[in-house]
Amino acid sequence: MAEETAVTDTDADRHPHTEQLTFNFKGGDSAELAQHLTGRSLSRRLPALVGRSLALAWAVERGSTIALLTCQVVSGLLEALGLFATTSALSALIQSARDPAHLRAAIPSIAVLAGAAGLRAILAIAIQGLSNRLGPRIAREAEFRMLEAATNAEMAAYDHPGFNDRYDQASRGVEVSRDMIGQSQNLVSSLATLIAAALVIGALAPVLLPLLALTAVPRALASVAGERVAYLATLRTFHDRRMLSMLRWHLSHKDQADQVRTDTLAPYLLDKYRSSGARVDRTNDEAAWQQARISLLGSAVGGLAAMLLWAGVMVLLGTGYISAAAAGTLVFALRSAAGGLHGIVGYGADLMRTGRYMDDWEAFIAEAAGQRLDRGNIVPGRPRYVALDRVTYRYPEADKDTLHEVDFEVRQGEIVAVVGENGSGKTTLMKLLSGLNLPTSGVVTWDGVSTRDLDPHTLWRQCAVVPQEFARWPMTARENIQLGQPQPGADDAVQHAAAASGADAVIAVLRNGLDTLLAREWWGGQALSSGQWQRIAGARAIHRDAGLLVMDEPTSDLDARAEHRIFSGLRELAKERAIVLVTHNLANTAVADRIVVMQAGRVSDAGTFTELTSRPGLFRELWLLQHDRAHPAT
Ligand SMILES: Nc1ncnc2c1ncn2[C@@H]1O[C@H](COP(=O)(O)OP(=O)(O)OP(=O)(O)O)[C@@H](O)[C@H]1O
Q: What pLDDT was estimated at residue 19?
């Protein structure tokens, strides 16, 4: 009973109207796939899966793929040869019981048998080695394709429900893709064994072939049904498994480790972890029982058919239809066939499982391709002016617009500040200016050309952005500023940019200057404070020789001296750039040529600092509020 209480979702119980965390991805295609997990579809699907794994192997290493296939075919032929040699060896051995002179006649067949067995053993080692070589390469290729698809997708793809969930699912496909070639190879090898054995049985006693099929079919059907049960259980536990992985990250990652402790949050999160885990276990237990029952039925019917098969061998021997030597060979062949069948069912099931995850991988690549950056190919130069004309923007699947008919412009040599309350749409405006997102209606232009018609990659080369959440790359200080794109003058350009953002003071105290690795968790790395990181992020944007500089709260973590340094240097930077900055510290907007005030997704006011502070409006209101505490009496 105590156990029961431990797995109750206490949050949902206490607050029945509270929204519960659910993931956007409902399983969609995977659920449909489960409906199609039938024997008939499998007979089409397994060859397709083998083909898919060979195609991937072919893409990564043709030579090894050809070698693997050749070894496989030769190994199958040797199996058949060995079984045929068994008949003559056995017949010579049986006759030698009456006349020892026959022993000599058995020698060539035994030599063939031993040779075939030896060669097959060597081929098996080669096959294993080739599979081990190809597996990790296939996984890397699969991951590469997934990452390539993700980086070539529109930013808006990340705002589509299910995109991130599909990415996670696809990652699982990448993980298991390394097993695919081994499973395909084992399946083909089992099939080769079965065909070799069936050829021998067909030659000696074709009447046994239907009985052989009868032993296989019930087990194969049971395996398919069991797989379906397992897959449906995987779908049913999808949300809880996602929850587990999310909690695992939140409970262990350094970023929130402090809050997990100071907020004494661990017991609450661990309780959620236990609840989800218990639900997964319950579903899996039910599925395991159901699978066991199905397996038992399949094995019972298959076993009955096997008894009939052996009875058939006895009848054939008793009626003199086959010789004792042929019966002996049949025993070997039937054992081989049973092994082959067992392999086909087992490896077939493994391959099906892997194939399902690979479907998710393929679905992601297809989905990302659906969101692929597919814009024009006009190459933009250094922009002289960037403008929004009646731009409306609505995030994918959102129920209302974030920006409404916004007009905006910034010219080279100009600094425009964008201000407004939280959620008014400033960051969204920055994403549109920098071509990260395309407008829902209206047009964003660079020198009069719509960002839809511009080649996005060259556009971003002309764009430097300091986002609110900037990246902290686990690289050296130099790489963190250069981003693999050194400017003429190399380190001089880095130092120049660092001086403009205040990062020079950070570099000066780094153990190894620009060569210092900025990743604490990596051996040898040095940790930076938030403000120090922000200076590096500022230097990164200034270092880019880009015509548009977009800064979204670039000084939120900086001390007064560093903030002053950045804003007093902006005018110099603006000589060759158009600069747009978002800030909540309104004193900083005094450096701007123009200030644009955003309110609920619209431009509510615009003007110079003097104009906006001297007339009533949101800017003046916010400005007074900001100074309320410093001058309480005025
Ligand atoms: N990825 C998203 N998907 C859906 N809605 C979003 C997304 N990002 C932002 N929004 C919505 O757009 C609105 C404006 O967000 P935005 O980040 O542009 O505001 P902001 O003015 O920059 O706010 P802040 O001052 O807090 O940074 C918010 O109300 C938010 O709900």
A: 57
ipTM for the whole complex: 0.97
Distance, in Å, from the CA atom of 136 to the CA atom of 180, rounded to the nearest integer, reads 10
> pLDDT tier at 3 (50, 70, 90 boundaries)?
very low
Q: With respect to CATH, is domain 375-462+546-634 assigned 3.50.50.60?
A: no
- Using the mean position of ligand 1's atoms as its centre, give its distance from the Cα of residue 427 in Å: 7
pLDDT: is 466 or 86 the higher one?
466
Q: What is the dihedral of CA 375, 381, 382, 386, to 10 degrees?
A: -40
Please identify, by atom number, the ligand 1 atom nearest to the C-alpha of residue 468. Answer: 27
- State residue 274's pLDDT score: 95
Strands 602-607 and 594-599: antiparallel
Residue with CA closest to ligand 1 atom 5: 395
Q: What are the structural domain ranges in the chain?
A: 46-370, 375-462+546-634, 473-545
Q: Which has the closest alpha carbon to 579: 385, 330, 320?
A: 385
How much distance in Å is there from the Cα of 468 to the middle of ligand 1?
12
Pairwise CA distance, residues 201 & 221, whole Å: 23
CB of 551 closer than 8 Å to CB of 582: yes
Q: How many angstroms separate the alpha carbon of residue 40 from the centre of ligand 1?
A: 50
Contacts of 194 by beta carbon, 8 Å cutoff, 6+ apart: 336, 337, 340, 341, 343, 344
Report the pLDDT value the prediction gives residue 334, as an integer from 0 to 100: 85
pLDDT reported for residue 523 = 64
pLDDT tens digits for 546-597?
999 999 988 888 888 888 888 888 888 888 899 999 999 888 898 899 999 9
Average pLDDT for residues 280-303, to the nearest whole number?
94
395 C-alpha to center of ligand 1: Å?
A: 9
Q: Tell me the CA–centroid distance for residue 232 and ligand 1, in Å.
A: 37
Best mutation site among 391, 422, 428 for ligand 1, i.e. most ligand atoms within 8 A of its Cβ?
Answer: 428
> What is the CATH class of 46-370?
mainly alpha
Per CATH, 46-370 and 375-462+546-634 having the same topology is answered no
Which residues have any ligand 1 atom within 6 Å of their CB? 159, 395, 398, 402, 420, 422-428
Whether the pLDDT of residue 4 is over 50: the answer is no
